[in-house]
Design goal:
This protein is of the alpha/beta class. Helix content is about 45%, strand content about 15%. It contains 15 helices and twelve strands. It has a six-stranded parallel sheet with strand order 2-1-3-4-5-6, sandwiched between helices. Helix 3 packs across helix 4, helix 3 runs parallel beside helix 5 and helix 4 packs parallel to helix 5. The two termini are about 40 Å apart. The mean pLDDT is about 85.
Length: about 375
């Protein structure tokens, strides 16, 4: 019987979207593209790619700067990382072509950009469908995106999109961006259903006790850069507010330096207990240094909505717009942390936030609100 192949590039348990993807298939083959050991990769020598990159520079630069205010970080910074990733994708695809014979696979579901490059090569070779889950803005998702790296990644992603039967993104702004940049017909690109978390409808609202004044800033996710955890650590050190962190990957030094309360990776029961005992709010801040962070809707936001607690989003992000429009919490601007905690101390204001989140819960999880 033909199988569906799901390509991943991180631990399954740390990515709720991958877990949701797996549930959608009947006994799929799951392959972690990072686990394969390859010989030392040489620098890519591909004249065609180099020529395409330089030809595309003026077109992409105009679009990115004029329409999306992207300001690349230098000329070549990070380019070698993308070149090595492309080289690796070719090696992994070659390995998988030998591992699976023609006729064994039904389709490929590729999570993230690197898996998309591998998946595109396999889809062409096996003549099967590719579903490309772009997650976020893959060509501009970290602080090392130089001009040449952005254009190089966009050219590679264009190749993936040309092969893919369906593209999946997380929200409307990213859908419109991809349709514009890559000239994708609307019928080919979908916004993913973000209901990856079991909704506890009205839970935090029903647990509210105005006599409980102790506050907790909750963080769920990876201990990686771009989450403004350093700012959180410093600001909390100036107050009596404690951070309760559930790190799904590595634990950063900042957590030990400021004595954060660390929970387990299987965190849901601990989180629900915490909500009963403290006025809890989820830290959902991401830097606005790149387009991906600016437009992303992190899993922690949907987890907060699922359990019914408000959030803190960073200024200038799409999430901050959603938070303001629906009264789901606060917008952090690097200077107003004490103002936020002072408002959390006000029982009426905190309860009003819980009420707003409860209303939004129904729209998101029952009415399938598309963000």
């Amino acid at each position: 019987m033909k199988k569906n192949l799901i390509l991943i590039d991180e631990a399954i348990e740390s990515d709720h979207r991958v877990l949701a993807t797996i549930k959608g298939y009947d006994q799929p083959i799951i392959f972690d593209c990072t686990k394969i050991t390859l010989p030392k990769l040489k620098r890519l020598s591909n004249l065609s790619i180099a020529i395409q990159t330089f030809i595309s520079l003026p077109i992409y630069c105009f679009k990115l700067n004029a329409s999306y205010n992207i300001k690349p970080n230098g000329i070549v910074k990070g380019l070698m990382t993308s070149i090595v990733a492309y080289s690796r994708s070719k090696k992994v695809a070659s390995f998988l072509r030998k591992k699976y014979k023609k006729g064994m696979l039904k389709s490929i579901h590729a999570n993230d950009f690197m898996c998309g490059m591998i998946g595109a090569q396999l889809a062409v070779y096996f003549n099967i469908d590719l579903i490309y889950d772009a997650h976020e803005v893959e060509f501009h998702r970290n602080r090392k995106n130089s001009l040449l790296r952005v254009v190089f990644d966009m050219l590679l992603e264009q190749k993936v999109i040309n092969v893919a039967k369906k593209i999946i993104v997380v929200n409307r702004p990213i859908k419109m961006l991809y349709m514009d940049i890559y000239n994708i017909p609307e019928s080919k690109i979908n916004i993913i259903d973000n209901n990856h978390f079991a909704p506890h409808m009205g839970f935090a609202n029903s647990m509210f006790n105005e006599n409980i004044n102790e506050m907790a800033i909750v963080y769920v996710g990876g201990g990686t850069n771009g989450r403004k955890l350093e700012s959180l650590g410093f600001d909390c050190s100036q107050t009596d507010v404690k951070v309760h962190a559930f790190f799904l990957s590595r634990t950063p030094d900042i957590a030990y330096e400021h004595d954060w309360i660390l929970g387990s990776t299987d965190y849901l029961l601990e989180l629900l207990e915490l909500i009963k005992k403290k006025r809890s709010i989820m830290w959902c801040c991401t830097d606005d240094i790149c387009l991906s962070y600016r437009l992303s809707l992190p899993n922690k936001f949907f987890q907060a909505m699922a359990v019914g607690i408000p959030v803190i989003a960073y200024k200038g992000t799409y999430l901050a717009e959603i938070v303001r429009e629906n009264n789901l919490g606060f917008t952090y601007d690097d200077h107003n942390f004490r103002e936020i905690t002072d408002q959390l101390k006000d029982s009426k204001k905190y309860y009003a936030l819980l009420e707003s989140v409860s209303v939004f819960q129904e729209k998101l999880f029952l009415e399938k609100l598309e963000l």
